[in-house]
Amino acid sequence: MDVSAAVAARFSARAFKADPVSGETVRAILEAAARAPSGGNLQPWKVHAVAGEALAQFKTMVAARLGSPDEAQYAVYPANLWEPFRSRRFQVGEDLYGALEIPREDKIGRLRQFARNAEFFGAPVGLFFSIDRNLGPPQWSDLGMYMQTVMLLATEAGLATCAQEFWSAYGKLSAEFLGLPDDHMVFSGMALGVADEAAPVNAWRSRRDDFEAWGELRGF
């Protein structure tokens, strides 16, 4: 699979099979992804991969706390989101729940689906990406490039992923479970495994604006 094919095939899976993924495969993906660029070669990422009994234990801890998140580590979205970002976020939510056939008025159904984040959508592997609190936005960008590389390599390996900033809301709990030092924070999680192709939600793809909405060519 070439890079273009991996980019086109990657999507945020929200239903996984229980098929295990070997530690060797996970390590190979994480190590290969470390070729991602970072300013000054700081390599600011710290990654934990959790599976099996350890993952089951963590899920139990989260289930006991679900609905009572920690103090937010950071704002995932700015307050009073403006256009065109507000409409894009609204549309992706409507499309997602539409694919799941959960109407807007079914608040319980939507909350139940959102809570599946806490189960990594059934994935057998949970990844946690953390970063030193003293690093700044450029290093957060570096971490994002590392995560994107992980997702593309997983796609190449026939696996699926779903990046989850959901875990920033349970950052303290996650950090305690992982044994992170106080100067590190959980930036994001990621579900990793074999996508359940029979699940309707995995047939859905989020929209992308046309190039003209965000791009411009000059001097060509």
From TrEMBL:
Pfam families: Nitroreductase (PF00881). Its cofactor is FMN. GO terms for molecular function: oxidoreductase activity. Keywords: Flavoprotein, FMN, Oxidoreductase. Residues 8-193 form the Nitroreductase domain. The keyword Oxidoreductase applies. Belongs to the nitroreductase family. This is Nitroreductase family protein.
